[in-house]
Amino acid sequence: MEIFKKLIDLNKLKVYNIYKEIKIYSVIFLLGVGSTLTYKSMNDQLMQPNKDPIKEPFYKKLNIWDFEFESEVLPHLKTSQEIINEAQDKYLHIKVEEIKRKNIKTN
Fold first, then answer.
1. In angstroms, rounded to a whole number, what is the distance separating the alpha carbons of residues 61 and 1?
2. What's the whole-model pTM score?
3. Helix, coil or strand: residue 7
4. What SS3 class is residue 1?
5. What is the C-alpha separation between 76 and 84, in angstroms, rounded?
6. What is the pLDDT of residue 35?
7. What is the pLDDT of residues 49-68, one digit of tens each?
């Protein structure tokens, strides 16, 4: 094991330097590829003949006044007093039924 540790310690600096070199070369390569692709795309755009703009749009402009609106009757919304009255009616109805049941049971 000690032999391997000595070999690793001796070659750490070499491996580190090789790693740094590979990193630098890869960055330079990517920059070169990116710049050539950008140049080609710009050159292609400049060499293409100018197209005339389309005179008629693909969509039809909508005129608001062309629409016909149908009147709809909205549903009746209950007022707070109506809701209270319904709740009281239900409560009173339940109370009356309970009283009737009690009277029937006692008889």
1. 82
2. 0.36
3. helix
4. coil
5. 16
6. 92
7. 666 556 666 666 777 777 77
Does 33 score more than 90 pLDDT? yes
Residue tagged 């009356």 (tokens): 96
Using alpha carbons only, what angle is made at residue 49 by residues 43 and 53, rounded to the nearest 5 degrees? 120
Length, in residues, of the chain: 107
CA–CA distance, 56 with 46 (Å, rounded to integer)? 26
CA dihedral 55, 60, 62, 63 (to 10 degrees): 60
Whole-angstrom Cα distance, residue 23 to residue 60?
56
Q: What is the DSSP letter of 5?
A: H
Q: Which residue has the tokens 């006692």?
A: 106
Three-state SS for 41-85 is HHHHHHHCCCCCCCCCCCCCCCCHHHCCCCCCCCCCCCCHHHHHH
**Rounded Cα distance, 61 and 5, in Å:** 78
Strand, helix or coil for residue 107: coil
Q: Which long-range contacts (CB under 8 A, 24 or more apart) does 39-42 make?
A: none
